[in-house]
């Protein structure tokens, strides 16, 4: 049996990820390979670390990109900081905070939930009350919940958590590079993300940064990390001054991330954040002009991911199918508790452009008229 040459459709990716990859990033991936222990590659790793520090707004030495998707960043964060019996508090208000809860249980944590309905956010007072009650070693929260489109305010949360000698872990998968994230100013301890959202790159790497406070806790573990591949102390020796072999790095993906982060730096974070905000506002105004209702209130609506309520007389799958088949545009349906109830529209990185928004709005208007 013979197979034809690879020929996939060129989609306009406006879902929750992956987002569209900048042409410069795609070209960088065609760069010839060098070895993962080559001094020239070590130099590239150092450049990636510097660019990640710029993008995370941090000076943390322990800043690197894990070989794996955003879920690998989540797993590494929990596996390395949770020992059997450790009290852990998970702020649960969506699909991905539920995933953190499940992972923490698998690593033997004594897990408590601070729970809100999907799409709502947590106040510092609510977090403080739960921290006082449960005295956790670690508090985990999602900055930008991809399942709901809610943006969790982080200012002041670390003060509450640190007053009770806990660490603050933040999922920034859908926020890094697309909306304001200030790791040092907000005093965040463990922050992970992913390359396929607002960073313009394909899926495959999970940027992560640890505060000095978190590094000290990591070094003080009493038991070995139960995952060898995601052991941050071992990986840190490869990304650190030792450059000690740990695994074969995904070289082409490091090329891609470097070029994606160069694009972030060239644009400037403030300008980039404003671009995402403008694109999102154009989308929100246009959706409401079509008579559609947005799921999240404007005061904590996430610019990189918008959830739209599906009208009761509309077949949500049929709309997505027509968008894909007639307009070559991908958006997504809801996850978990919101399955069948919302559409999820992503405007991240290279996808967050006015022409994409206007084209999507025109396509939706045409499709909804057919129902």
Task: Lay out the secondary structure.
Blueprint: E1 12-13, H1 23-28, H2 39-56, E2 62-67, H3 70-81, E3 87-92, H4 95-106, E4 110-115, H5 124-134, E5 138-142, E6 144-145, E7 150-151, H6 157-162, E8 167-171, E9 190-192, E10 205-210, H7 212-219, H8 232-239, H9 251-267, H10 269-289, E11 305-309, H11 316-327, E12 329-330, E13 332-333, E14 342-346, H12 354-370
Parallel strand pairs: 1-12, 3-4, 3-5, 5-8, 8-9
Antiparallel strand pairs: 2-10, 6-7, 9-10, 11-14, 13-14
Descriptive overview:
The chain has 371 residues and is α/β, with parallel strands linked by helices. It folds into two domains: 12-16 and 269-370, Aspartate Aminotransferase, domain 1; 23-265, Aspartate Aminotransferase, domain 2, CATH 3.40.640. It is 40% helix and 15% strand. A seven-stranded mixed sheet has the order 2-10-9-8-5-3-4, sandwiched between helices. α2 crosses α9, α10 runs parallel beside α12 and α11 crosses α12 (354-370). The longest helix is centred in the C-terminal third of the chain and has 21 residues, at 269-289. The protein is globular and about 65 Å long. The model has no long low-confidence stretch (mean pLDDT 97).
Please give a quick description of this structure.
The protein is of the alpha/beta class and 371 residues long. It has twelve helices and 14 strands.
Strand content: 15-25%
Instruction: Report the CATH architecture of the largest domain.
Output: 3-Layer(aba) Sandwich
| Tally of distinct domains | 2
Report the helical percentage: 25-40%
Name the poorly predicted regions. none
* Sheet of most strands: 7 strands, mixed
Return the CATH class of the largest domain: Alpha Beta
CATH superfamily of the largest domain: Type I PLP-dependent aspartate aminotransferase-like (Major domain)
Radius of gyration, taken over Cα atoms and rounded to an integer in Å: 21 Å
| Continuous helix count | 12
- Order of adjacent strands in the largest pleated sheet: 2-10-9-8-5-3-4
Give the N-terminus to C-terminus distance in angstroms: 43 Å
List how many beta strands DSSP finds.
14
